Amino acid sequence: MAVVYVWDCRTVDCYPTDGNYTDVVYRVHWRVTGTSDQRDPEGEFYTATSIDIQTISTSDLSNFTPFADLTNSDVVAWTKAAMGSAQVTEIETGIQSTINNEINPSSVTLTVKD
User: Fold this and answer.
1) pTM above 0.85, yes or no
2) Residues 35, 46: contact at Cβ < 8 Å?
3) Would you give the end-to-end CA distance of the chain in angstroms?
């Protein structure tokens, strides 16, 4: 089974000004959605999502990108770099585990009749 991960890092918190720069991103509200290539009984692909925030260092603005020029890809790269590869892997592995548990649950909840 393959899972495709989509990182959404489009919502950010910015300092209105930081030195000579405006709208300086310092925190990212990220969402990672994993979608399996397997379908559930209703025909939908299995998916799972993880959401959190990540602080981005603003100590070196020598490669500053104006807010109007930022793309999701730029901010995803910053977010992953700030997290480090181990945390990125942990997030994606957690999503994979959630999908695996949806496909092959180790427990189910049932209701007893009256």
Assistant:
1) yes
2) yes
3) 40
Contact indicator for 46, 109 with CB cutoff of 8 Å: no
For residue 107, which amino acid is it?
A: S
Q: Residue holding tokens 């990108």?
A: 65
Calpha distance 12→34 (Å, rounded) = 21
Per-position b or e across 67-76, b if 16+ CB within 10 A of its CB:
eeebeeeebb
DSSP state of 43: S
Residue 91 · residue 54 · CB < 8 Å: no
pLDDT digits (tens, 9 = 90+) for 18-54: 999 999 999 999 999 999 999 999 999 999 999 999 9
